[in-house]
Amino acid sequence: MTDIMIEASGVAEDIYPLLPLRGMLVFPFMITPLDVGRERSIRALEEAMTQDRQLVLAVQKSPEVSQPEVDEIYEIGILAEIKQLLKMPEGQIRVLIEGLHRVKIDEFLETEPCFRVQVSEIVEPEEFGPEIEALMRTLQDQFAEYVKLSRKVPSEVIVAINSIEEPGRLTDTIAAQLMVSVEDKQNLLEIASPRHRLEQLVLLLSKEMEILRLEKKIHVRVRKQLEKNQKEYYLREQMRAIQKELGEKDAVASEVEEFQRKIEKAKLPKQAREQALHELERLEKMPPMAAEAVVVRTYLDWLTSLPWSKQTRDRLDIAAAKQVLDDDHYGLNKVKERILEFLAVRHLTKKMKGPILCLVGPPGVGKTSLARSIARALDRKFVRFSLGGVRDEAEIRGHRRTYIGAMPGKVIQAMKQAGSKNPVMLLDEIDKMTMDFRGDPASALLEVLDPEQNSGFSDHYLEVPFDLSNVFFITTANVMHNIPRPLLDRMEVIQIPGYTEEEKLEIAKRHLWGKQVAANGLKEDQILVSDNAIQKVISDYTRESGVRNLERELGSICRKVAKELVQGVEPPVRVNVNSVETYLGPPRYLRTLSEGESKVGVATGLAYTQVGGDILAIEASVMPGKGKLIITGQLGDVMRESAQASLSYVRSRAAELGIPIDFYEKHDIHIHVPEGAIPKDGPSAGITITTALVSALTGRPVRGDLAMTGEITLRGRVLPIGGVKEKVLAAHRAGIKRVLLPMENRKDLDEIPANIQKKLELESVEHMDVVLEKALLAPIPGMAMAVDSGDDASREPMPFLPTGFEQESQQPWIGNS
Q1: DSSP assigned state of 509
Q2: How far apart are CA 711 and CA 713, in angstroms?
Q3: Other Cβ atoms within 10 Å of 595 Cβ, number
Q4: Cis omega (within 30 of 0) on the bond before 572?
């Protein structure tokens, strides 16, 4: 080739600046833009602009070299003219170049500040004839077919190519359009003879078209054989090869780098970091569209998005925290005191495990909102999830990654949502979890709620330990007996009793009323409500321990007032005790009031339900029969056993109580608890059943202004019960004057508001004899005993039994506890 070029060379010589090209080549008659950034190249452009805007373009042999030496540049290049020059940001220059003709670099005169070379023009010989014409037609036909096969060259180029008559210009124009290597293009540039260039280009085009035909054939065969994911893989592999050829990073490499940055930023513990890097190495080796790659990507996303080291700073100002708690909730002093204790200890020691509280109380008393308020007081993030109806262990611990759609459990999901490692986490309705063949979620919570274990909580999905020791766990429940004992043992239980009517009035005035006024588009000066009106809503339209229904009723009043205002009523609208029925209709609930009248065979008991306390009349009737004990009122097994124990006690004390010893042989006894549609159970109605039974057998009335609660043993001892505050409040609402409580429940009297204690006469009893002495009146004159006492019956009461009995365990009671 060089010999051909030299024979065709002329003698004219000139000196120009040189601009080395990397990865591309410019042919004569070709107009193309160039981005110039290297210092030497910029200086070459500046010098060319002062010398008729002309310079030499030559390709450097290795595109990786940033500052090429003289021997690293091809000696055959072209002389080009600068058409336009535009300075870009960051010091780069974009220039529009037109190639003029071939030149040979004879000598490098300077290398600094830019290359300056002495060149001689390569003059192409004029070659015509039938052979040249045939080569030109062959080349044009081949190029037309190449354009159809490659689809990378615009079809409009074919029209321009067919209009070219000079063989040299034809070869240069076609060579500039080919997708071949720079080395092949440089070989064509070094051939001066148009005929030889035509021959070389025909061979090169034939080779390229054969490759294109094979590619097309492969594409067709692959398209028929491969499934969708294999097609995508093949395309991505092509893309990767193209990106590699262009010097760009492929998608997988970019993804791996992104995960590496996330791993560094997450500051993972040693074990988690090793696991993440291991999975990242696996991802890098996998095909991008492999099913396993999707699983690994999701896993790494979870692993790097968890707050391994992020945490918020606690607000240790006790006064400010107390103000937040008081602003959000009225009362609930025991819970507030516990939070302030935590802050005080946290202030004194920097290392402290997060407490685990269990707030137990009836619905609507503010357990959930209190947890949110605690987070605000501590200035921590707050997350919540409900455990109601959860029956799968995987809901807590997560699924193993072998399963399709596997994901972490609710605890890890909540930690990701919080974005810090020390949030306040509320596990709502922990008493409503169930279990089935998929496992027991309560057992999975044992590790979560154990301060000695949760520093290394293991989720099945993550497979690395996660530290939960800084989390402030709060759980809520309506009753404790549904919570498994091992789980309950791990939590600090705080009872939140129902509100008194006075507390509900304060809550309504401070929180609920203003909230409902704003929620219904009203202003405070448009509607005024009296305390008596709110009190009437509380007593006649709601029956609950909390305030949810109260808030609904107040919202109903606000909506009706809003309707009146829209219809033209002049504000302010005053809501008083007389207008409540206008807005809410007739009272929905009539108070369960004590009948007040002392009756034979009827004793008033105290009940504790999920919605608070209530009173319960227990009736006993004696009739001729064969000694049957009839128990009605939909009573549970425990309450039926209490009735049996009461009867056994009465039989054992019949002589002392003035009852024939054989009364049970000739009479049937019927014990009934009204409101039979409501299930009732629990042991604490024992003394009430006994009192009613003794009253019916002796004909002595039971005091109508007295109520009682307590479990009885066969020896007559009165055992402690639960729900004292709720039961006493129910007695107060019902108009009861005296309440008998077990002696061992005296410690619970501190929970009863002082104003309630002043209005009630609370008495502690230790034995059933004392109960009967305080509850039963003298027989009504003229009224016969239900059972003939006989001549040998003694009425002298039996003295108290000695103390020191083994105390039966206290049991929670639903319905009548």
Answers
A1: I
A2: 7
A3: 13
A4: yes
Active site residue 684: yes
How far is it, in rounded angstroms, from Cα 87 to Cα 339? 66
- CA-to-CA distance for 509 and 769, rounded, in angstroms? 46
Among this protein's residues, is 621 annotated catalytic? Answer: no
Task: Give the active site residue among 373, 684, 695, 789.
Answer: 684
Render 572-617 in DSSP notation, one character per residue. Answer: PEEE-TTTHHHHH-S-S--------S-BTTEEEEEEEETTEEEEEE
CA dihedral (543, 547, 550, 556) positive or negative:
negative
Backbone φ, ψ for residue 630 (5° rounding): -105, 125
- Report mean pLDDT in 10-residue bins for the chain, 817 residues: 40 75 86 86 85 87 85 88 84 86 87 86 82 82 80 76 81 82 84 84 85 81 64 71 65 75 84 85 75 82 87 83 85 82 80 81 84 87 87 82 83 89 89 76 83 84 87 88 86 82 86 90 89 88 84 92 90 88 85 69 83 81 87 86 90 86 85 79 87 90 90 91 84 86 89 84 91 84 53 39 33 33
Model confidence pTM above 0.85: no
Burial 312-325 (b: 16+ CB within 10 A, else e): bebbeebeebbebb
Catalytic residue among 680, 727, 789, 817: 727
> For residue 623, what is the DSSP state?
E
Residue 637: what residue type?
A: D
Q: Which of 440, 445, 489 minimizes the C-alpha distance to 471?
A: 445
Length of the chain as a residue count: 817
Per-residue H/E/C for 301-368: HHHHHCCCCCCCCCCCCHHHHHHHHHHHCCCCHHHHHHHHHHHHHHHHCCCCCCCEEEEECCCCCCHH
Is-contact 803 665, C-beta < 8 A? no
Beta bridge partners of 360: 477, 495
Distance CA 763, CA 737 (A): 11
Query: Considering just the CA atoms, what is the radius of gyration of the chain in Å?
Result: 48
Q: Mind spelling out the 3-state secondary structure of 365-402?
A: CCHHHHHHHHHHHHCCCEEEEECCCCCCCHHHHCCCCC
Contact 622, 699 (CB under 8 A): no
Rounded Cα–Cα distance for residues 318 and 239 (Å): 62
Distance set, CA 17 to CA 23, 122, 407, 623 (Å): 20, 18, 65, 130
Smallest CA-to-CA distance from 171 within 102, 92, 74 is with: 102
